[in-house]
């Protein structure tokens, strides 16, 4: 599976040959092209994560772009091709406690590969929306739903943060506190969602510095903590566990 270092390398490579990337990008924009690209450049994975019952198309060492020059990567950073430790814990928690999503309207914000949305669907959520500003992530989420024999959720690629909150019962946030600026806007918007609709906000995070140091951290109730499987630890530079929190603001 791709590592954070590899993501950084892909990111770095973006600056090396922008022209070439744009040329490729322009020729890869249709959903059919993106689907073909994902199918050709990922492998279905399952057993090694915290949720072996969910299969996901991800980067593995057998995939071309695991070793390929990052400047040849035709899209933005491939966060959707990784099943992040925060998302793994969150999805595990949802699967273990189906009552959290059963019959509820659920938003998986920053869905990436779509695992938390899939977990919510498997638990009988009434309505699931998967949101990611990366169009490729939304296609990957649809393909991963199909891989698990599920109808794809509604996939939204607009930036919902700071928009008028919709009346979701549950918002799922897997590994979304990896960037300080994003964490701050997200925090503000979550307050608004809770104040307006009483939304239940669940966060999965493996203890990233940006999360641990953020002021939202003091307003969280721990729900569960999961030891990460060995392979996930190896791919995530020594992270050993991942925690699920409920956001309980003092509004
Ligand atoms: C670290 S990944 C986590 C993916 C997934 N939740 C998981 O745990 O496997 C963060 C994801 O958030 C998405 N993202 C970043 N900013 C966003 C925003 N403002 N709205 C929605 N998604 C966003 C990225 O494209 C990326 O797919």
UniProtKB/TrEMBL annotation:
Gene Ontology cellular-component annotations: mitochondrial matrix
Highest taxon of source: Eukaryota
Pfam families according to UniProt: PrmA (PF06325)
Substrates-to-products reaction catalysed: L-lysyl-[protein] + 3 S-adenosyl-L-methionine = N(6),N(6),N(6)-trimethyl-L-lysyl-[protein] + 3 S-adenosyl-L-homocysteine + 3 H(+)
Keywords associated with the record: Methyltransferase, Transferase
Gene Ontology MF annotations: protein-lysine N-methyltransferase activity
GO BP term, pick one: methylation
InterPro entries assigned to the protein according to its UniProt record, in alphabetical order: Ribosomal_L11_MeTrfase_PrmA (IPR050078), SAM-dependent_MTases_sf (IPR029063)
Gene3D superfamilies named in the record: Vaccinia Virus protein VP39 (3.40.50.150)
Family affiliation: Belongs to the methyltransferase superfamily. ETFBKMT family.
Name listed for the protein in its UniProt record: Electron transfer flavoprotein beta subunit lysine methyltransferase
Species of the source: Echeneis naucrates
């Amino acid at each position: 599976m791709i590592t954070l270092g590899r993501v950084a390398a892909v990111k770095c490579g973006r600056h090396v040959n922008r022209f070439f990337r744009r040329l490729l990008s322009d020729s890869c924009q249709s959903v059919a092209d993106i689907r073909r690209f994902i199918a050709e450049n990922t492998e279905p994975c399952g057993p090694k994560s915290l949720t072996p019952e969910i299969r996901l198309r991800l980067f593995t060492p057998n995939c071309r772009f695991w070793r390929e020059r990052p400047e040849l990567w035709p899209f933005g950073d491939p966060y959707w091709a990784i099943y992040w430790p925060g998302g793994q814990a969150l999805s595990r928690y949802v699967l273990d406690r189906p009552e959290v999503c059963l019959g509820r309207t659920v938003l998986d914000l920053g869905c990436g590969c779509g695992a938390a949305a899939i977990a919510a669907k498997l638990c009988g959520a009434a309505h699931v929306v998967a949101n990611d500003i990366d169009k490729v992530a939304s296609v990957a989420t649809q393909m991963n739903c199909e891989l698990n024999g599920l109808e794809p959720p509604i996939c939204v690629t607009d930036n919902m943060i700071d928009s008028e909150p919709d009346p979701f019962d549950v918002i799922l946030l897997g590994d979304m506190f990896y960037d300080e600026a994003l964490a701050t806007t997200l925090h503000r918007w979550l307050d608004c969602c809770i104040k307006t609709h009483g939304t239940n906000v669940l966060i999965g995070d493996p203890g990233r510095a940006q999360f641990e140091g953020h002021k939202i951290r003091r307003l969280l109730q721990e729900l569960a903590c999961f030891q990460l499987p060995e392979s996930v630890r190896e791919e995530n530079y020594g992270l050993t566990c991942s925690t699920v929190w409920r956001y309980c603001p003092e509004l």
